[in-house]
Amino acid sequence: MPSHLPLAALRRAPHALRTSRLHRTVLRGLTLLFLALAPAWIVIPAARAQTAADSSVVLVWTATGDDGSTGTATRYDIRYRTVGVTGTDTTSWWNAGTPVTGLPTPRPAGSTDSVRVRGLIPLTTYYFVLKAADEVPNWSGFSNLAVKTTSGDLTAPAAVADLAVTATTGTSITVRWTAPGDDGATGTATSYDVRYSTTAITNGNWASATVVTSEPVPAAAGTQQTFTIPGLTGSRTYYIAIKTTDNAGNISGLSNVPSGTTADTVPPAPVRDLSMDPDSNPAYLADSGREVMVLGSNAP
Q: Domain extents for the chain?
């Protein structure tokens, strides 16, 4: 399908097509523009540029009217797919397309309308087509086919490979690791997810491991970072693992899984039933002269 519809070809179309209410809208040139395809003479504000962070694109077009190029249409319908139109069968393509939500209310004929399409897959080519309707509704013909490949980040941070336990107390374990990057080992990631368990952590049981809060913000790739996990039970072995997320939501693989054992800080309970054996003889402390009884002593 061509990227634009020449007006000369439309003017040679049958009179019924040119004079019908909806098909006359095409004479106005329902121009669906994609930012990268817009002619040089069209000034598009920077605020309308595509953003890669959420894989969105902005569509811009000139509004047609209610009756041809006069008045104000009632609504729009935009659909997209990741495959182009095969031959001239735009109707089948349209019926299989995904409708765009959040479309604007049409403005008066000749105005510029636009919409940001969100939730797209990064680094994927999309094809868009637009139709307009009046209050009946009479629907316009198909617009030109707009094509754009989204940008985006599909590279996850590298998995931490040197996570190590550096210190333990009765209630905490301190770990150290080398910060990965935003893309593999380059840049700066966005967040860490540190978890621990009393059994070895794997991808299969990651979701059931205990989530730690207040992890540090990732530093630049290659930086040594430390973190102390509090609130642990003494004299117990814990396994620790970490995953890293970048600003596009890409999550690293599971780190290596070291273990550490918290210290035993619980002393024996005090004896509460100390008593004197009536068959024992008294003994004397050499330094104090105080008499004490030796429990269980049968010395004469």
A: 7-149, 164-261
Name residues whose C-beta falls within 8 Å of residue 74's C-beta, 6 or more positions apart in sequence. Answer: 66, 106, 133, 134, 135, 137
Please give the CATH number for the structural domain made up of 164-261. Answer: 2.60.40.10
Specify the 3-state DSSP secondary structure of 181.
Answer: coil
Kindly tell me if the per-residue pLDDT of 203 is higher than 70: yes
The one-letter amino acid code at 80 reads Y
Is the pLDDT higher at 86 or at 72? 72
Q: Confirm whether pTM is higher than 0.85.
A: no
Matching fold, domains 7-149 and 164-261: yes
Q: Is the pLDDT of residue 279 over 90?
A: no
CATH 2.60.40.10 for domain 7-149, yes or no, is yes
Write the DSSP string, 251-280.
Answer: BPPP----EEE-----PPPPP------TTS
Q: Residue 172's closest CA among 227, 123, 107?
A: 227
Say how far apart CA 158 and CA 178 lie, in whole Å: 11
Q: How far apart are CA 102 and CA 185, in angstroms?
A: 38
Over residues 51-76, mean pLDDT: 84
